[in-house]
């Protein structure tokens, strides 16, 4: 892998069994994502955006093709190697947030650091910084059920960016946010990119494409186009 490449997918395929039927969620997807860039995955519901993010994170196994993530061949990696990669280098914002209900927002956000042995005080400091970055200062001691859906989403983003992550994967990170907060969160993700973090996100919101270096358009599991953001925007008739 070249040092400047974060992710290389080659003829990537993923099929889900649905009883006797099977659904091809991804077919022959090939793309190369440079390190330190922000990529937006877009396309209709069911086009394979979440599946691609899950494969990159090693949350689902690759069925065909190859996938290199941060120098690791995740199509052949064992579960332990994938878990270690996820814990140390990858932040993932789940489409459904996946916050732990019995932990406060602060405890949720500092969990990845504590899991890798960071001292409690240092983890708390880093978690408060990440929460401040997404506008959650003052809500550290609340439980997920005690805050709004948008605040839960921001806590999930704080958990994904806490500490020094190499790669942040975000599945519709602005989906539950009003347009102003959504724009702020996109600004946070773009700032991370400017600091050298590789960011890949899925989105239905054309306004988010303006922050992207490149846009991948999926349809029925195939990659329709993969362009620098400007040409993708002009192909859509311009993005405000
Ligand atoms: N665990 C699963 N079991 C069976 N089918 C699945 C599973 N996960 C995804 N699929 C199917 O794979 C296809 C791609 O789904 P995916 O969730 O990746 O789409 P998406 O682009 O993220 O959609 P959305 O915009 O609604 O989030 C869909 O047909 C979906 O029904
Ligand atoms: Mg999805």
Question: What's a quick, concise take on this entry?
Answer:
The protein has 240 residues and is of the alpha/beta class. 33% of the residues lie in helices and 28% in strands.
Commentary on this structure:
The protein is of the alpha/beta class and 240 residues long. It has a domain at 5-95 and 165-235: P-loop containing nucleotide triphosphate hydrolases (Rossmann fold, 3-Layer(aba) Sandwich), CATH 3.40.50. It has helices spanning 49-56, 79-89, 105-115, 120-133, 149-161, 179-194, 229-235; strands at residues 5-18, 21-34, 38-42, 64-69, 72-73, 90-93, 167-171, 198-202, 214-219, 222-228. The strands form two sheets. It has a six-stranded mixed sheet with strand order 6-7-8-3-9-10, with helices on both faces. Strands 2-1-4-5 form a four-stranded antiparallel sheet, with helices on one face. 40% of the residues are buried. The model is unreliable at 236-240 (pLDDT under 50). The protein binds adenosine-5'-triphosphate and magnesium ion (MG). Adenosine-5'-triphosphate binds at residues 16, 18, 23, 25, 43, 45-51, 95. Magnesium ion binds at residues 49-50, 95, 171, 202.
Order of adjacent strands in the largest pleated sheet: 6-7-8-3-9-10
The run of helices and strands is EEEHEEHEHHHEHEEEH
Query: How much of the residues is beta strand, in percent?
Result: 25-35%
Low-confidence stretches: 236-240
């Amino acid at each position: 892998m070249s040092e400047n490449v974060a992710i290389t997918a080659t003829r990537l395929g993923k099929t889900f069994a649905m009883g006797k039927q099977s659904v091809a969620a991804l077919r022959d997807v090939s793309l190369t994502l440079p390190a330190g860039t922000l990529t937006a995955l877009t396309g209709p519901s069911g086009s394979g955006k979440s599946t691609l993010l899950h494969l990159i994170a090693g949350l689902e196994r690759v069925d065909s093709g190859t996938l290199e993530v941060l120098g690791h061949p995740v199509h052949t990696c064992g579960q332990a190697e994938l878990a270690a990669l996820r814990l140390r280098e990858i932040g993932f914002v789940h489409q459904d947030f996946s916050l732990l209900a019995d932990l406060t927002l602060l405890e949720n956000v500092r969990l990845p650091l504590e899991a890798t042995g960071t001292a409690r005080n240092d983890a708390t400091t880093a978690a408060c910084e990440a929460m401040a970055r997404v506008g959650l200062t003052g809500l550290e001691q609340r439980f997920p059920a005690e805050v709004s859906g948008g605040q839960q989403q921001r806590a999930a983003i704080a958990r994904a960016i806490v500490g020094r992550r190499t790669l942040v994967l975000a599945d519709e990170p602005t989906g539950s946010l009003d347009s102003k907060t959504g724009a702020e969160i996109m600004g946070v993700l773009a700032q991370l990119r400017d600091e050298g973090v590789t960011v890949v996100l899925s989105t239905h919101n054309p306004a988010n494409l303006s922050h992207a270096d490149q846009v991948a358009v999926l349809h029925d599991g195939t990659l329709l186009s993969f362009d620098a953001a400007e040409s993708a925007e002009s192909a859509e008739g311009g993005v405000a």
